[in-house]
Amino acid sequence: MAEQRALRRAGHSWVVAVPVRVRAHLKLKVPGAAYWHVAGPGEAVVSAHSTRTGGKPAGLDLAPQLVAAEREIARLRGRVADRPRAVYNEGVNAGVGMAQRLGYAFEEKLSHLTAAVLRIERQVGGAPPVRVPRRRRAAASPSPPAAPPAPTAAG
């Protein structure tokens, strides 16, 4: 909750009265010290400690990190763009080769399974006949009522 306070000049400094609730919250005592931290555009924070703890980091402190991160992103994008097409093709070729090896192994296992099924069928005397269900005829539906005769011009 914001509380408005008046600023007063005292020599070369400005003085602001600290509200009772803020003094109690920060556990400030006389004589003691309070510290001001610039938080962002148009904001300042008063605390009982010389270093800020908790809360969001100040935007001004993050500006160098943001510039460094943007520079790193631009550098990495440039490396990807400069990478020759041959390197990409090598990776694709390796993946296709791996897929083919796995596919051949699957086909080999499938052929063994098919051979085993055929061997069992020969031992049993052939595959059982496959019965195809017969199509049933639909029940006869009553015919629609006859349409009345169309009027003639003689009327």
Which percent range fits the helix content? 40-55%
Using DSSP, what is the number of strands? 4
User: Which runs of at least 5 residues are low in confidence (pLDDT < 50)?
Assistant: none
End-to-end separation:
93 Å
Protein model, in words:
With about 160 residues, this protein is an alpha+beta fold. It has a domain at about 10-55. About 45% of the residues lie in helices and about 10% in strands. It is built from three helices and four strands, in the order ββαββαα. The chain has helices spanning about 20-25, 60-80, 85-125; strands at about 5-10, 15, 35-40, 45. β3 (about 35-40) and β4 form a beta hairpin. The protein starts with 6 loop residues before the first strand and ends in a 31-residue tail after the last helix.
Briefly say what this structure is.
This protein is α+β, with helices and mostly antiparallel strands and 155 residues long.
Which helices and strands appear, and what pairs or packs with what?
Blueprint: E1 7-10, E2 13-16, H1 20-26, E3 35-40, E4 43-47, H2 59-82, H3 85-124
Antiparallel strand pairs: 1-2, 3-4
Features:
155 residues, alpha+beta, elongated
